[in-house]
Amino acid sequence: MRQSVYYITLVILALLLASGCKKRDLMTDRQQMILFQYDFRNAAQHYGFIVDSEGNVFTYNNPGSWNFPDSDFEISQEEVAENTGKCVFSGIRIPDDELLKYTKVIDFIALSKVTAPRITDADKGTAQYICYQFEESSQKYKGHLIKTEGDVTRENLNFHSKRVYTWMKETGNGLSFD
User: Fold this and answer.
1) How far apart are CA 99 and CA 105, in angstroms?
2) Are 148 and 119 in contact (CB under 8 A)?
3) Is residue 115 in a domain?
4) pTM over 0.85
5) pLDDT tens-digit profile of 67-96?
6) Residue 84 domain-assigned?
7) Which of 37, 61, 80, 91 is most exposed by smallest CB count within 10 Å?
8) Over 90: is that where the pLDDT of 18 sits?
9) Alpha-carbon span 178 to 88, nearest angstrom
10) Phi/psi at 21 (5° precision)
11) Which residue spans within 26-158 are E strands per DSSP?
């Protein structure tokens, strides 16, 4: 009898603790501002969109003084804040369950290799699909390439990356970059 009361108490305690956690808190570090980015560049244009940790989709079109990630796809929290300040809310918010579905595979994508760059076109421009992990100790984002298309083609070899790429492409189809 005492043993069953003990187990029931543990179950109730676990339920109470779990009910206090929001699904969104489980997705990302609370300091992480951005999760995904689509970025297109050619000689005359630079536009794209960012999905933040709340699921908000922000667009940009030829922003001045844009901070680009370095060659290792790293960018500081301060530079990300400057970039997001140059963005416009698109009016689209990704539902929590959908955002969680794609956010929880970022770690797998981060561990995978990316194909070598292949020149596939000329003067078309380059589009990059990137996901980010925030490193609290350095206050930097580490970007992980999902796919590059256009003048140069590269892709992440993780099977989750194809789903994230398709989802990001569909998200971008409904956006205006004006």
Assistant:
1) 10
2) no
3) yes
4) no
5) 999 999 999 999 999 999 999 999 999 999
6) yes
7) 91
8) no
9) 10
10) -95, 135
11) 34-41, 46-52, 56-61, 74-76, 88-93, 118-119, 126-135, 140-150, 152-155
